[in-house]
Design brief:
20 helices
C-alpha cells in the first residue's frame, strides 16, 4: 500500500511539464492589460477569497504570453497615445473593418453566409481544442487531435444531414444516393461515432488514463458548445436572412455601445469575472440595442430577399430566396397606448409585426446574451489566459467575438420554434413518402375524410368522394 501511494505521488508531478508549444496564449503569471487597467488572474483569485483547491490547478500548465500581432502601420500611427487610448483606437478600427466584412458577406447572399458560419465553427473549435493541447502538450496523448477532428466530422454529418433532409427535401429526392443517405442517416451517424469511440478506447495508454478522459470530455463539451449552436445559426439563416442578420447585429450593437458607455461613463463594476464591465455600460447598451433593433427590423422587413426562407428551386435547379412575405413582414396599424398618445400626438402607428418581436430579441441580446461572454471570461480565467487566440488584434480570437453570438442563436431558434414557425409540411411529406404504398393510401383516405368533414374540399371533390 505504501509502495502504491509512492508510485501515485511520483506520477502526479509528471503531469506538469516545462515545454509547451509557444505563441498561442498568455502567460499565467503576467498582468494582462486592457486599456490602462491591469488584470492579474492570480491576484483576482486572492481578492475573491482564494478558496480553490490547490490540487485543482496542479495539472494546468502555465501558458506563454501571446505576441502582439497589431499591424505595424497601425502601431506606428498610434505610438504617441497612451495604452488606454491606443487600445480604444485599435478595437474601433478593427471593429469597423469586421462590420464592413459583415456587410460584404451579406451582399454575397445566404449560401455564402452558410459557408462563413461553417468556417467560423471550425475556427472556434480549433481555438478551444488548442487551449487543451497547449496546456497538456507534454503528455503527447495518442490520437487526441485526430480523434477530436474526427468527432467534429461525425457531429457535423449528423446535424447537417438532418437539416438537408428537413429543408431541401426536393433536392434529396432527385438523387438516389442522397435518398439512401437520408433514409439511413441516423444509423450512419451512430456507426461513425461508434468507430471513433472504439478508437478512443484502443488509444488508452497506461499512466495517461485520467488525462485522456479529461480530453475526451473536453472535446465533447466543445462540440456541444460550438457545433450545436452554430447549427442553430444556420437553421435561423435558412428561415430567412433577417433571423440571422438582426440578432447578430443586436449583439454587435450591444457590445459596441456597452463598451462606449463603459469607456466614457463607466464607474460601477458589474461582475468580477469581467472587471472592465460596468453598470453604466450595461444599461446604456440595453437602451441603445432596443432602439437599434426596432430601426433595423423596420429597414430589413421591407425586402423579400431578407425575409424569405432560403430554399431549393427544383425548376431552376438552384438555391435562392423568393416568396410572398408573410403577415409578420407586412405593415399593420397599431393603436398607440394612451400614455404615449398624449406625448406623441399619434392615434395609430404603422409597424411590421416583426418589430414587436425585435424588442424581445434585443432585450435578450442586452440582458442575457452578455452572460455568454461572462461564461467565456470564467473559462479563460480558469486556464489563466486572456484570449482564446490572437486572430484579431485588440479583440483576441474568433471565439472571443462569438461567445455571445452562440447563446443568442440558441434563443432565436427557440423563439422562432415557439412563437413563429408552425409545422413543417415538407418534413411531414418526407415521412409520408417513406411509408409503404398501402400506408400512404390509408393516410390519404383519413386526410380526405377529415377535410370533407371540415368543408375544406370543394363541392366536386365531395361528390367524387361520395360516388366512390
Amino acid at each position: 500500500m505504501t509502495e502504491l501511494r509512492r508510485r501515485q505521488h511520483d506520477q502526479e508531478p509528471a503531469c506538469v511539464a516545462e515545454s509547451v508549444d509557444p505563441g498561442n496564449q498568455h502567460h499565467a503569471g503576467t498582468a494582462m492589460k486592457d486599456g490602462d487597467e491591469e488584470f492579474d488572474g492570480d491576484e483576482m483569485d486572492k481578492k475573491d477569497g482564494g478558496r480553490e483547491d490547490p490540487k485543482g490547478d496542479s495539472d494546468i500548465q502555465e501558458v506563454p504570453t501571446s505576441v502582439d500581432n497589431t499591424p505595424e502601420v497601425l502601431s506606428k500611427a498610434l505610438s504617441g497615445l497612451s495604452s488606454r487610448w491606443k487600445n480604444w483606437w485599435i478595437r474601433g478600427i478593427l471593429s469597423l473593418a469586421m462590420i464592413g466584412f459583415f456587410f460584404v458577406i451579406i451582399y454575397l447572399g445566404a449560401f455564402v453566409l452558410v459557408l462563413i458560419v461553417f468556417i467560423v465553427q471550425i475556427k472556434c473549435f480549433q481555438e478551444i481544442i488548442m487551449i487543451g493541447y497547449n496546456v497538456y502538450h507534454s503528455y503527447d496523448l495518442p490520437w487526441f487531435r485526430t480523434l477530436s477532428w474526427y468527432f467534429l466530422l461525425c457531429v457535423n454529418y449528423f446535424f447537417y444531414g438532418e437539416t438537408v433532409a428537413d429543408y431541401f427535401f426536393t433536392l434529396v429526392q432527385r438523387e438516389e444516393l442522397l435518398r439512401l443517405l437520408m433514409r439511413y442517416h441516423r444509423f450512419i451517424s451512430f456507426t461513425m461515432y461508434l468507430a471513433g469511440f472504439c478508437m478512443f478506447v484502443l488509444s488508452l495508454v497506461k499512466k495517461h488514463y485520467r488525462l485522456q478522459f479529461y480530453m475526451f470530455g473536453w472535446t465533447h463539451v466543445t462540440l456541444l458548445i460550438v457545433v450545436t449552436q452554430s447549427h442553430l445559426v444556420i437553421h435561423n439563416l435558412i428561415e430567412g436572412m433577417i433571423w440571422f442578420i438582426v440578432p447578430i447585429s443586436m449583439v454587435i450593437c450591444n457590445d459596441i455601445m456597452a463598451y462606449m458607455f463603459g469607456f466614457f461613463f463607466g464607474r460601477t463594476p458589474l461582475i468580477k469575472l469581467s472587471p472592465k464591465k460596468t453598470w453604466e455600460g450595461f444599461i446604456g447598451g440595453f437602451f441603445s440595442t432596443v432602439i437599434f433593433g426596432i430601426l433595423l427590423a423596420y429597414v430589413l422587413a421591407g425586402y423579400p430577399c431578407f425575409v424569405c426562407p432560403f430554399e431549393y428551386n427544383s425548376v431552376t435547379n438552384s438555391f435562392g430566396v423568393d416568396c410572398e412575405p408573410s403577415e409578420l413582414f407586412q405593415l399593420q396599424n397599431y393603436t398607440v397606448p394612451a400614455t404615449l398618445r398624449s406625448i406623441s400626438g399619434w392615434e395609430t402607428v404603422k409597424l411590421y409585426p416583426f418589430q414587436i418581436h425585435s424588442i424581445a430579441l434585443s432585450t435578450f441580446a442586452s440582458l442575457i446574451s452578455p452572460f455568454g461572454g461572462f461564461f467565456a471570461s470564467g473559462f479563460k480565467r480558469a486556464f489563466k489566459i486572456k484570449d482564446f487566440a490572437n486572430t484579431i488584434p485588440g479583440h483576441g480570437g474568433i471565439m472571443d467575438r462569438f461567445d455571445c453570438q452562440y447563446l443568442m442563436a440558441t434563443f432565436v431558434h427557440v423563439y422562432v420554434a415557439s412563437f413563429i414557425r408552425g409545422p413543417n409540411p415538407t418534413k411531414l411529406l418526407q415521412q409520408v413518402l417513406f411509408l409503404r404504398p398501402e400506408q400512404q393510401l390509408q393516410f390519404f383516405t383519413l386526410l380526405q375524410d377529415i377535410l370533407l368533414k371540415r368543408g375544406v374540399l370543394p363541392a366536386e371533390e365531395q361528390q367524387g368522394a361520395v360516388h366512390q
